[in-house]
Amino acid sequence: MFVLAATTPPLGGDVEIEFVLPPFSSVPRPTRLHCVGRVSRVETCYQLKGFAVAGQFVDECQAMPNAFVSGAESSDVG
Fold first, then answer.
1. Among 7, 35, 61, 65, which residue's beta carbon has the most beta carbons within 10 A?
2. What is the mean pLDDT of each run of 10 residues along the chain (78 residues)?
3. For the chain, what is the domain count?
4. Domain range for residue 65?
5. Model-level pTM?
6. Strands 48-58, 31-45: parallel, antiparallel or unpaired by DSSP?
């Protein structure tokens, strides 16, 4: 997975990322995804920064019955 971010963790660092996919046609409720892994690449291009994570998803099919998350809040769900 590649994440665009204002700041990036160090290459080789351990990370946990959690985000929520909004409902769509085949999945009627928001779905939380949780990835545990290691930073495998850090990139900067012009004013954009980002990093790649090599890892595994944990509980990737866990539906959130009452969640509402906007795109701006998706990286800070708890």
1. 35
2. 93 94 90 92 93 85 46 42
3. 1
4. 2-73
5. 0.66
6. antiparallel
